[in-house]
Amino acid sequence: MKPLGLGAIGSGEIAINSIFKHLKLHDTDDKVFLAAVCDPVEGRAQSMAEKYGIRSWYMTDDELLADPAVDVVSICSPIRFHYEQGLKAIRAGKHVHFNKTMAMTSAEADELISEAERMGVKLTVSPGMMGWRANRLLRKAYLEGSFGQVTYAFGGVRGVLRYHLREEYRHDNYGSEPLIPTWYYKLPDGGPQYDHAPYGLTSITGILGPVKRVSCMGGQLQKEFRFGEKVIQSEVDDNFAFLLDFGDNVFGLFFSALAGGKNMFTPNIYGTDGNYIDGKLNDKALFENPYAAFSIKGIPAQHMKLPEPHVYGDMMQLIDAVQFGDRPIASA
Questions:
Q1: What domains, with CATH codes, occur in the chain?
Q2: Are 207 and 137 in contact (CB under 8 A)?
Q3: How far is Cα 256 from Cα 259, in angstroms, rounded to an integer?
């Protein structure tokens, strides 16, 4: 079976770290190759193509989608463009990997899924957090009744708006200018609720099941952020608290905070007969090495050492789904 051609729509941080650096290892050349990249910033797509050995580069997504060498598309643009670009890719007959989130509304997501079924193409959506070993073991423990009656779960994320300013590679010149993270701080798609919260929310719902109701409070604590000499005026709320109702009087508490505390991508879970708290299930460590909790099914060690291995894993699940009919964990 010949390898599939992958096209990246957008060549910013997530494309570099989750696709280009991983496929440059060439250990999956029998499955997938970098066929094309597009980016509207002058010089950037060409620079990426030259650096990472990508066969073709374009300025627009229309040009990329018209390339017959592109079988699969990874959408690596700002979130506000995901629905429109995803719909165009699906209607062009391309299989699509969406970076989070796949759309801005559930109605848009439903349309993308329906259109993919109509066109006979496959989708995967990041973040595929249920690929994490810890989350899969906790889902199994939940189904087996290891917690007794679950009473509540607690998880959350913090600090992403400050994190983007500290990513050193952003200051490099990528064919035209540094990767200034301005859109993360702008409406309609900036802020941690789209950028960071999906990791923890995907974990907590993947383990305990879908949420019936959600209540949320949020607001803005910081109005300016500095990237080098550039001051970014923030438009987004940056501090959130969620109350999740799983039904049957089981609740979840989730935070998405500007700063403070620690990331809890995998939630603590409390029940009448057992608990999972900070890596321990009923007071017994799940793993001798805490980093094993983040290991991802099917991803070799050399990729786990690179940035964004979970997103790379989601994309490779799409490749395997197209070539071999495997059912992806990171499904839509």
A1: 4-128+298-324 (3.40.50.720), 133-294 (3.30.360.10)
A2: no
A3: 9
Measuring CA to CA, which residue among 245, 270, 248 is closest to residue 141? Answer: 270
Three-state DSSP class for residue 316? helix
How many C-beta atoms lie closer than 10 Å to residue 85's C-beta?
23
Q: Under the phi-then-psi rule, with left for phi > 0, alpha for psi from -120 to 50, and beta for the rest, what region is 325?
A: left
CB 193 within 8 A of CB 257: no
Q: Which pair of tokens denotes residue 245?
A: 């109702």
- Residue 291: C-alpha distances to residues 23, 186, 222, 286, 304 (Å): 23, 34, 32, 11, 10
**CA distance linking residue 228 with residue 166, whole number of Å:** 10
How far is Cα 317 from Cα 329, in angstroms, rounded to an integer? 7
- Could you report the per-residue pLDDT of 62-114, keeping only the tens digit for each? 999 999 999 999 999 999 999 999 999 999 999 999 999 999 999 999 999 99
For residues 98, 101, 105, 110, the Cα torsion angle rounded to the nearest 10 degrees is 30
How many residues would you count in the chain? 332
My answer on whether omega of the bond before 188 falls inside 30° of 0, hence cis, is yes
Q: How far apart are CA 194 and CA 110, in angstroms?
A: 18
Measured CA to CA, the distance from residue 179 to residue 170 in angstroms comes to 5
pTM for the model stands at: 0.95
pLDDT tens digits, one per residue of 230-284: 999 999 999 999 999 999 999 999 999 999 999 999 999 999 999 999 999 999 9
Instruction: State how beta strands 224-227 and 230-233 pair.
Output: antiparallel
Closest CA to 20 of 1, 40, 39: 39
